[in-house]
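Agenda item 2: MRU complex prediction
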Amino acid sequence: MAVKTIEWNDDRVIMLDQRLLPHREVYRVCRDYNQVASAIRDMVIRGAPAIGVAAAMGVALGALKAPSKTFDREFERILVVLGKTRPTAVNLFWALQRMRQVYSEKRSQSVEVVKRALKEEAQKIYREDIAANKQLGKYGAGLLRNAKHIMTHCNAGALATAGYGTALGVIRALKESGKAFEVFVNETRPYLQGARLTAWELKKEKIPATLITDSTAGYLMQKGEVDAVVVGCDRVAANGDVANKIGTYTIAVLARRHGIPFYVAGPTSSIDVDCASGKDIPIEQRDVKEVSHIFGKAVAPKGTRILNPAFDVTSQDLITAIITEKGVIHPPYQQNIRTHVCH
Ligand code: MRU
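Presented output:
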């Protein structure tokens, strides 16, 4: 049964509350854009493409409820509020820009026309994301056709997108192609997207998976038990540097050390050609309680100094290829990304 990450239903936005997974499947109903913004900030929904889709639906929802008299002012406010939720995933800003484009194109007509067009655009972004993931999944399955043991980090699955997933889209497509393989799932401290979400998705799909601590990755690579790594991405810079969940860079360095191919999968909506390199990507710093507490129980002495960057940057030289819905990008990325995005 397909995972329902998010949907537009009867002028409400309904999301699966990912904070409660894998133990409870609870759907949250958002009736206004502020509720959508809180859901993104508080990680009811998370994952770059899913954040983009939710933001687009938040704009459409906010526009629907905006009084005609103050529509333009309210529209700007909606974009500001949603734009402040999380800084790293470029899909958020890509989606807001696309919604602003529709607004600008339709604004000469009536407010009702604009509202309708924004609602249609949000649903188009939703459908396009699923189609893109299915397409990039196929390209990725071709690349990983000989891999028996695949490692992934964080959750880049149906839960992190409108559906099907990016890195897990490659893994779903590989299964659909009839290949036999197993997946090593990094638990992905501190928020445990691997243990809670990826293990849950792969179990639902009956794809053999083994959960490991993040620090077990090197041990398995050293023993020659990992054939390939595939991860998602929150932002791909113009030079090919990639921001993804904290710990991804460590896995990439280990993979290089052991001669293991390291693939990044993501829709072109995750590529930011206006961002020159990884050092220009804003890295979200999240609540230190995510590190000091596990399910509300303190695991560190009170007053301990804590850092909690949610993402890191993998430099382009460590990436074997970037898989998108348009095909596979190989180095040199500086040149090939621009060509890829423009075609
Ligand atoms: O903090 P999160 O859970 O939003 O981080 C998610 C990731 O890092 C994913 O790997 C990335 O967004 C790609 S999702 C297809």
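Discussion summary: The mean pLDDT is 97.
Owner for follow-up: CH.
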